[in-house]
Amino acid sequence: MNSNFSKILKQKRTSMGISQEMLAQKLFVTKSTVARWESGTRIPDITMISKIVDCLNIDVSVLINTAADGNITPDIIIVDDERIILNGGIPIIKSVLPGANIEGFIKPSEAIEYAKSHKVDLAFLDIEMGMTSGLDVCGALLESNPKTNVIYLTAYTDYALDAWSTGASGFMLKPLTADGVREQLAKLRYPLIAGGVTE
């Protein structure tokens, strides 16, 4: 199913002199689970990938992106009424998840319409967008797909409590950074694999 992911995992594990059983014990899974990952018949979810990268000292984006091999491309949107944020944010998200389809929207209404015809896996939402609140956009997105992960982007910490009450997965202060995106990927409410595959 995924030779690139399994190859990287096996190479890194063996180069560190760690057996499948040892890795399984560190991750609190069975040896057969590790064997399935290395044979390419199963792929761990993002939460487990985060644990694997800690154990084997691998860049999380490397494993996430190789997990996309041959599978459905995740749909990611970023909604902000400032074009400079979109122009800077899209390349940053793309650098972390180069296999993803990423769309940017200045108008919240266009993002909501897009979500009605696309399964949005992850949405980065500004909170203050003129007359529209990102909190309301979150509600509309979740109405289209209850498993959309929403991460709020804002320059103000005052919104944190309101943001959490909407069912969002995360909250990031602007500006968007690659490290910040990676950190949020490990905390998603609905774990995302770049290929849309979870265990």
Indicate the percent of residues in helices: 40-55%
Low-confidence stretches: 194-199
Per DSSP, what share of the residues sits in E-state strands of 2 or more residues?
5-15%
Output the structural class. alpha/beta
Q: How would you sum up the global shape?
A: elongated
Query: How many helices does DSSP assign?
Result: 10
Strand arrangement across the biggest beta sheet: 2-1-3-6-7
Series of H and E elements:
HHHHHEHEHEEEHEHEH
In total, the number of strands is 7
Q: Terminal Cα separation, in Å? A: 13 Å
Radius of gyration: 18 Å
How is the biggest beta sheet arranged?
A: 5 strands, parallel
Q: Mean pLDDT, rounded to whole units?
A: 83
Please explain how this structure is put together.
By secondary structure, this protein is an alpha/beta fold. The protein is 48% helix and 15% strand. The chain contains ten helices and seven strands. A five-stranded parallel β-sheet has the order 2-1-3-6-7, with helices on both faces. A two-stranded antiparallel ribbon has the order 4-5. Helix 9 links the parallel strand 6 and strand 7. It is elongated. 34% of the residues are buried.
Question: What brief labels describe this structure?
Answer:
alpha/beta; 199 residues; disordered C terminus; 10 helices; two-stranded antiparallel sheet
Summarize the structure.
The chain is of the alpha/beta class and 199 residues long. It is 48% helix and 15% strand. The protein has helices at residues 3-15, 20-27, 31-39, 46-56, 60-66, 83-96, 108-117, 134-144, 160-164, 178-185; strands at residues 75-79, 101-105, 122-126, 128-129, 132-133, 149-154, 170-173.
